[in-house]
From TrEMBL:
A Pfam family hit: EcdD_BsdD_detox
InterPro entries: VdcD-like
Protein name: Phenolic acid decarboxylase subunit D
Domain of life: Bacteria
């Protein structure tokens, strides 16, 4: 399964429906995106996912901490 947001191929199945075959939840450890298999193609299909919300590898690497983590003060 390809991540719709960052196109990583290293996704994994996080959960499955109690009734087998109804839905699955997938997670991307690269960008932390999670999606349910029953969401619309604009969420689940990498080719239809909005460019506005897409993340590249450089976006992920260069992203800052939010909220910012202050430096540890040595006393
Ligand atoms: Zn991703």
């Amino acid at each position: 399964m390809t991540c719709p947001r960052c196109r990583s191929e290293e996704t994994h199945q996080l959960a499955t429906s109690p009734v087998p075959g109804v839905w699955e939840v997938w997670q991307c450890p690269t960008c932390l995106f999670c999606w349910r298999s029953t969401e619309p193609p604009s969420i689940t299909n990498p080719d239809l996912y909005s460019e506005r919300f897409r993340l590249s590898m450089s976006d992920i690497v260069e992203a800052g901490d939010f909220p910012p983590v202050p430096e540890v003060q040595a006393d």
